[in-house]
Amino acid sequence: MAGEKAIFITGGASGIGQAVAKLFAARGWRVGLADINTAGLAATRAMLPAGMATTHVVDVRDRGQWREALAAFTEASGGRLDVLFNNAGIAVGGALAGATDDEIDRIVGINLVGVINGARAAYPMLKATPGSALVNTASAAAIYGSSGLGLYAAVKFGVRGLSEALDAEWAADGIKVRVVMPSFIDTPLLDSNVSGTNHTARDSVRAAGLEFTPVDQVAEEIWNGIQRDKVHIIIGKTARRLAFAARWMPGALRKQMRRGAIR
């Protein structure tokens, strides 16, 4: 129904996007689910209260698809766009020297250009909705770059930088901007193979003895983070430790990263 608060979520077919959709819908929000995974979109929609969600097949690299999806969603929401959750992303791990051209183009196109496209497309609708927010998913990799995650860190630092810039640019329009920087979240993204190896990112996290943060906790922290007057939403013990070390012990952190370097 028109007048309900409304959130549009990319990467809504699984993982963090799905968890955020469930939380916001449970709290009475209308939800727009966007992804390239049609089966996943249908599965997420089935988890939400009847009539609370619309689904949109969107490749975030395609500006035309962005415009069409947001137009359709805001028509259903009575013109409201209270939150755009720019969350779609892929993972690429391994040394930069071993990355393929396709891997480079895909991760830059989806994880960075896709976020820029979403912000641009949603801006007029966010501006027209009082108290609105843009929420972009980055990563703890945007706190300090890690060996073996050069491409991932590059695009996530880009998302962080864009978010910090838009926090200033859009303040006068009354649009809040947040960037989510979680450590390792238990989602299908961790099942991606590390380039040049036969093991997954999940295997690497377990071998390092690091924790996984449940997606339901991430969704709750995003909800709370929108309310607080801070740009950065840092989630998980590993992310918080990394942020502390990057600020107060940069030399020690650099040595630690070199010891674990992937070549």
TrEMBL record:
Keyword Cell membrane set for record: no
Top-level lineage group: Bacteria
Record keywords = Oxidoreductase
Keyword Oxidoreductase attributed: yes
InterPro entries found in the cross-reference section = NAD(P)-bd_dom_sf (IPR036291), SDR_fam (IPR002347)
Give the similarity note: Belongs to the short-chain dehydrogenases/reductases (SDR) family.
Query: Which Pfam family, any one of them, does this sequence belong to?
Result: adh_short
Q: Which GO terms describe its molecular function?
A: oxidoreductase activity, acting on the CH-OH group of donors, NAD or NADP as acceptor
Protein's name in the database: Short-chain dehydrogenase
